[in-house]
Amino acid sequence: MANSLSERQKFILALVIREYIDSVQPVGSKRLVDKYSLDFSSATLRNEMGALTELGYLRQPYTSAGRIPTEEGYRYFVRQLMGQTELPQNTRRTISHQFYQAGQDVNRWMRLAASVLAHQSQGASLVTSPHSEKPRFKHLELIATQGRQVLMVLVLAGGQVRQQMLSLAEPVSQDHLSETAANLSLLGQSLDIEQISALAPQLDVLGQDVIKLILDDMRHSGDILGGEVYRDGLANVLSEPEFAEVDVARRALRILEERSLLEDLLTRTVLTTNMDGVQVLIGGENTWEELSDCSVVLARYGAPGYATGAIGVLGPIRMAYGRTISTVRFVAGLLSDLVVDLQTE
Q1: In this structure, which of 26, 63, 85, 105 has its CB flanked by the most CB atoms within 10 Å?
Q2: Contact 200, 87 (CB under 8 A)
Q3: Residue 108 in 3-state DSSP?
Q4: Distance between CA 296 and CA 264 in Å, rounded?
Q5: Would you place residue 225 in the very low, low, confident or very high pLDDT band (cuts 50, 70, 90)?
Q6: pLDDT tens digits for range 66-102
Q7: Structure confidence at residue 123 (pLDDT)
Q8: Distance between CA atoms of 252 and 243, rounded to whole angstroms?
Q9: Closest C-alpha among 143, 135, 97 to residue 116
Q10: Region at 216 (left for phi over 0; alpha for psi -120 to 50; beta for the rest)
Q11: ∠ CA 122-128-129 to the nearest 5 degrees?
Q12: Cα–Cα distance for residue pair 270/13, rounded to 1 Å
């Protein structure tokens, strides 16, 4: 089907899609001729739009209306007509400066990435924490809370931070907790699961209890969604006319809210691809019913073999694809730089 379009039909399809993205109104031939001063007649344009409709790239919502793009039309536009896009240089410079100001705090980077993606795309964003492909210990904190309850904060190589509550058999002073954490941080530096497990016999009862919790956390840290998932911009999606109906909006946002659905989506798409690619899913691609009214732009970031994560933007099928794709690609590159920096520390 891709080879069946003439250059003029490709041009007209791109015009219709851009007009519909901006206006959310069916696009008529007279409007295009008047607005773009085209060098062919309105009748010729109508004939070409009719041909594009027969080919499945456009559709007419009702008799005498203009045309709107179909899912196939959007797919053809993204894959064949749009070409490589980049954010304006001043926008890239501003975003880079925001991340520079965030320092090396992984949580701040994740929150900032979600915010930037939502703002630039005017969609709903998601960012998964980097998960270690072979988890290695980096640092530990033990903090007394109430009674026998202790908060364990585990930092893994790659910047992933995991927290758990530990219930002790009897209360332990903060000094003892701090001493144990410092000792484990020293002994466990850069060790993997098997090496951490081998430390247990040389530790006291508290240390052995903590080791068990550390091992449990490290075993789950390799899960795609083992850490926190950062989201932003849900209000952007809800304000779009396509999601005015509550059921449509609820179905669309399930993919962001339900971890099992999100894990399935990421496992079968972006996390199986290389690091420099961006994937665009339009209308669920006949696989995810929840996304039938949406498009999702996804990318992988990180350092393969060390730690990786995923970022994405969800919005209506009538999405500003060029800006969204270029934003996702640029932010993924910045997050990859952060993970590489953490790897070399």
Answers
A1: 26
A2: no
A3: helix
A4: 14
A5: low
A6: 899 999 999 999 988 887 888 999 999 999 999 989 8
A7: 94
A8: 8
A9: 97
A10: alpha
A11: 135
A12: 28
